[in-house]
Design a protein that fits this description.
Blueprint: E1 3-6, E2 9-11, H1 23-27, E3 30-38, E4 41-42, H2 45-58, H3 67-81, E5 86-93, E6 110-117, E7 129-135, H4 150-161, E8 166-171, E9 174-178, E10 182-187, E11 190-193, H5 204-215, E12 219-222, H6 227-232, E13 235-240, E14 244-251, E15 254-255, H7 263-282
Parallel strand pairs: 7-8, 7-14, 11-12
Antiparallel strand pairs: 1-2, 1-6, 3-4, 3-5, 5-6, 8-9, 10-11, 10-13, 13-14, 14-15
Helix pairs in contact: 5-7
This protein binds pyridoxal-5'-phosphate (PLP).
The site of pyridoxal-5'-phosphate has 14 residues, from helix 5 and strand 13.
C-alpha cells in the first residue's frame, strides 16, 4: 500500500496536502532523495542520508532531524507501507512562507515521505534504451539533489517527442549525465564514467556500480568523454536507483555494439543482483 508522511501525519499519498505558500511549491526550494526498498529492507540508506545532509547543507536549509531521526522515520514508513519492493521519496522544502519573497522567511521545513510499490526488472525484462544527446542547459549545481527538475523534464520530454527514451546531456561537448541517471561507457576492458563535479549528481547507484566493478576486477576510470566516445563505445549504460544499471542500444540513431545488452553489462547486472541479495540478508 502506498503511504505518505507529511510533517508528522501519516496518510494516503493523495490525501497529503501542502500550502500554496510552501516554498517547495513556489520556488522549487527543496531537496530530495529516492531510496530503494528490496525484501522490505532499505538499501544504501546511509549513503542516501549522507547525500541528503550534503544537499541540505549546500542550500543552507537546517532541520531538527538527525540522521538517526531520518532513519527511524524511513523505517516506520516502510513498515506502514508493508511493501516488499518499493521506492521511498523523501522531500524536504524550506517550508511555508508568510508571504511570497525571495528572502528566507519560513521557520519550519516541510517534510514529505512517500513509499510506493516498485517492481524491479529481471534480466529478461531489460531492453536496450534508445538515447539521444542534448545540450545540458541546467544550472551549475547539478550535484545538489534539488526538487526543481524543470530543465531535466524539458530535456527528457524533448527526447521523448523525437522518439527517444531519454537524453544524455553534454556541457561544452563533455558528457555530464542523463536526465535522471548517470552514464557509463565500456571501452575495451575499461569502464568509464564522468568524474564527480558540480555539473552532475553523485549518484548512489553510480558509486555502487564502481564498487561492484572493482570487486569483479574490472578496470574503472572516472574521466571526461564526448559524444564520439559514446557512439564508438562497446557498451553504454545508465545507472539510477529505479533503473539500477540499464543498457543503451542506440545513441542518436547509431547502434551501440550489436544493439543488444553487452557481456560486461550482463556481468555487472548479475553481480549487482548478488550484492543486493547479500545486503538484504545482512540488514537486521
Ligand atoms: N542523475 C540525475 C540527474 C538523477 O536525477 C538521478 C536520480 O534520480 C541520478 C543521476 C542517479 O542517482 P541515484 O543513483 O542516486 O539514484
Amino acid at each position: 500500500m502506498a503511504i505518505a508522511y507529511l510533517n508528522g501525519a501519516w496518510t494516503a499519498p493523495r490525501d497529503a496536502k501542502i500550502s500554496v505558500f510552501d516554498r517547495g511549491f513556489m520556488f522549487g526550494d527543496g531537496v530530495y532523495e529516492v531510496m530503494p526498498v528490496y525484501g522490505g529492507k532499505i538499501l544504501t540508506k546511509t549513503a542516501h542520508l549522507e547525500r541528503l545532509a550534503r544537499s541540505l547543507k549546500e542550500i543552507r536549509l537546517e532541520t531538527a532531524h538527525s540522521q538517526e531521526d531520518w532513519s527511524i522515520l524511513l523505517e516506520q514508513a516502510v513498515e506502514k507501507a508493508g511493501e516488499s519492493n518499493a521506492l521511498i521519496y523523501l522531500q524536504v522544502t524550506r517550508g511555508v512562507a508568510p508571504e511570497r519573497s525571495h528572502v528566507y522567511l519560513s521557520a519550519e521545513p516541510t517534510v514529505l515521505i512517500t513509499v510506493t510499490p516498485f517492481a524491479p526488472k529481471t534480466e529478461q525484462d531489460i531492453v536496450c534504451l534508445k538515447v539521444c544527446t542534448k545540450e545540458d542547459f541546467r544550472w551549475h549545481r547539478a550535484d545538489i539533489k534539488v526538487t526543481s527538475l524543470i530543465a531535466n523534464g524539458m530535456i527528457k520530454n524533448e527526447a521523448l517527442s523525437e522518439g527517444f527514451d531519454d537524453a544524455i546531456m553534454l556541457r561544452a561537448g563533455l558528457v555530464t549525465e542523463a536526465t535522471s541517471s548517470n552514464v557509463f561507457i565500456v571501452v575495451g576492458d575499461e569502464i568509464r564514467t564522468p568524474p564527480k563535479s558540480e555539473l552532475l549528481l553523485h549518484g548512489i547507484t553510480r558509486q555502487e556500480v564502481i564498487r561492484v566493478a572493482q570487486g569483479l576486477d574490472l578496470k574503472v576510470k572516472e574521466c571526461d568523454f564526448q559524444v564520439d566516445d559514446l557512439e564508438s563505445a562497446n557498451e553504454v549504460w545508465l545507472s539510477a536507483t529505479g533503473l539500477e544499471v540499464q543498457p543503451v542500444g542506440q545513441i542518436n540513431g547509431n547502434q551501440v555494439g550489436d544493439g543488444h545488452p553487452g557481456p560486461v553489462w550482463r556481468e555487472m547486472f548479475q553481480a549487482f543482483q548478488k550484492e543486493k541479495q547479500q545486503s538484504i540478508e545482512c540488514i537486521d
